[in-house]
Amino acid sequence: GAVVSQHPSRVICKSGTSVKIECRSLDFQATTMFWYRQFPKQSLMLMATSNEGSKATYEQGVEKDKFLINHASLTLSTLTVTSAHPEDSSFYICSASPPRSQDEQYFGPGTRLTVT
Amino acid sequence: GDSVTQMEGPVTLSEEAFLTINCTYTATGYPSLFWYVQYPGEGLQLLLKATKADDKGSNKGFEATYRKETTSFHLEKGSVQVSDSAVYFCALSDRMNRDDKIIFGKGTRLHILP
User: Fold this and answer.
1) Looking at chain A from residue 28 to 67, which residues have their Cβ under 8 Å from any Cβ of chain B?
2) How far apart are CA B50 and CA B35, in angstroms?
3) Are strands A32-38 and A19-25 parallel, antiparallel or unpaired?
4) pLDDT tens digits, one per residue of A37-53
5) Contact at CB, A6 and B49, closer than 8 angstroms
6) Is the pLDDT of residue A102 over 60?
7) Which residues from chain A sit within 8 angstroms of residue B93, using beta carbons?
8) Which residue, A24, A73, B68, B111, shows the most beta carbons closer than 10 Å to its own?
9) What tens digit of pLDDT does each residue of A21-33 get?
10) Nearest CA of chain A to the CA of B4: how many Å?
């Protein structure tokens, strides 16, 4: 079945550094991937839609210069948190839709980012 | 705009109890409806879905019926297990919006006691 992976699963970084999170569709090609952020005990907040070969579409209130998204290929999207601060600490989840999936999205296992 | 409202948790039940988690939605078009489950420390997994009115989605003993007249998609299970402890998200995808976005409810945390 459709599998989406994320790497790393956990990362701890110092304030002011940048962190890259990878999202891969392992057995299908995805022209569109989605990045979400989840705060403790809260729902998922859609951050941006990642489009292969074009710029990402960011949701209102999400800083595009802080959360850089690159959809390098049909199986890989990356989210880079630049100049991270403690308030960026969160659980980041990506998802992708297989072709002809009838609205279905498959989610990665998530990446826990802690900024110290 | 489109939205999903689900009952707030946490919900605590004893093993083998009957479970209902309420979910209602608003949508301008003809949404597909989903229930996702998130186990501790993990991402989301699709539990079940329904794509049109009166469809019933089912998986792992869970069921939900797409009720257009009441704009609801309540999740039910006849006999819960400890392993069902997780957070459950009701969600919709409105095909009138050609962007494939999924709109999530706030999630309901379920605790099953042995």
Assistant:
1) 32, 34, 41-44, 46, 49, 57
2) 9
3) unpaired
4) 988 777 888 999 988 88
5) no
6) no
7) 103, 105
8) A24
9) 999 999 888 888 9
10) 11
